[in-house]
């Protein structure tokens, strides 16, 4: 009787091993934590380490036990979670709900979907380095955007007296759209004819002849801001992207964007405005702001 039981057990083990070996490639490994992640429900108890799928489709992991606090609001209890083996690896570390929290009074022109769509043009943005660095870069970019646009309220530069100043006639291509056509537009207020040309060349658009695209097409508008952030040093010594990824601090992003007007004590109030936004946004994203915040 005992031998029969042992024989039966051995046959079952052999059958199980055979089943695993015959499984199609990719199905033998266990599902990732996001594959089985439940939808977040307010009022449900979540122990530390629980991964949930929020209402906007993004994933969060409980950093502390909590009775169903909102992951977007209660950032001490929850952290954004990048899925491995499931979900969306490399996703933009700012959810739509967090974006709305950052910019409650934003102009309808500046859509979250427009921003996410524009990210494809610069895949290294907010996806390079550790999770902390990725969130810091997203916060740094959006903090400078907040300052430049009054909280994503303004699409174009408000001081119209400056408009004629942004035409550098020394450039061989001149200002074909007109003397006053290259004023500040978009999330980082792209200005000057040479910047419109360079951004247009990089993005495959004729912004030199049609600069108004930056104020009429949300995706183009976001792309020009990402172009500057990821590729231009401005008055600084590095791109804003490199400043964050290289650990040089938020202050160096200010220097690269408007350092000639604000840094080295020239306009401390403007610098502080940017820093205040950065601190607020890093708090929303649940990440430390790091050092070297001013320039």
Automatic annotation (TrEMBL):
InterPro entries: Glyco_hydro_19 (IPR016283), Glyco_hydro_19_cat (IPR000726), Lysozyme-like_dom_sf (IPR023346). SUPFAM superfamilies: Lysozyme-like (SSF53955). Residues 101-295 form the Glycoside hydrolase family 19 catalytic domain. Gene3D superfamilies: 1.10.530.10, Endochitinase, domain 2 (3.30.20.10). Keywords: Disulfide bond, Plant defense, Signal. CDD domains: chitinase_GH19. Residues 1-30 form the signal peptide. This is Chitinase.
């Amino acid at each position: 009787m005992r031998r029969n039981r042992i024989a039966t057990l051995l046959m079952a083990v052999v059958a199980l091993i055979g089943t695993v070996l015959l499984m199609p490639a990719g199905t033998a490994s266990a599902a990732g934590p996001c594959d089985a992640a439940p939808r977040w429900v307010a009022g449900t108890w979540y122990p530390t380490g629980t991964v949930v799928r929020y209402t906007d489709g993004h994933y969060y992991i409980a950093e502390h036990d909590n009775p169903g606090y909102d992951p977007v609001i209660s950032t001490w209890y929850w952290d954004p979670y990048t899925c491995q083996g499931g979900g969306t690896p490399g996703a933009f570390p700012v959810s739509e709900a967090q974006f709305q929290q950052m910019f409650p009074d934003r102009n309808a022109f500046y859509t979250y979907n427009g921003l996410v769509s524009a990210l494809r043009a610069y895949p290294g943005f907010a996806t390079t380095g550790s999770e902390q660095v990725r969130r810091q870069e997203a916060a740094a970019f959006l903090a400078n955007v907040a300052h430049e646009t009054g909280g994503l309220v303004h699409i174009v530069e408000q001081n119209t007296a400056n408009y004629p100043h942004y035409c550098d006639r020394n450039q061989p291509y001149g200002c074909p759209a007109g003397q006053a056509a290259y004023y500040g537009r978009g999330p980082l207020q792209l200005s000057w004819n040479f910047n419109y040309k360079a951004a247009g060349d990089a993005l495959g658009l004729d912004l030199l002849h049609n600069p108004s695209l930056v104020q009429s097409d949300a995706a183009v508008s976001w792309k020009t801001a990402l172009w500057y952030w990821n590729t231009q040093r401005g008055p600084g010594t590095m791109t804003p992207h490199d400043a964050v990824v290289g650990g040089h601090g938020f202050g160096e992003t200010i220097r690269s964007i408007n350092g000639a007007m604000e840094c080295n004590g020239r306009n401390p109030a403007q610098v502080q405005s940017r820093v205040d936004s950065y601190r607020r946004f890093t708090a929303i994203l649940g990440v430390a702001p790091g050092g070297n915040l001013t320039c």
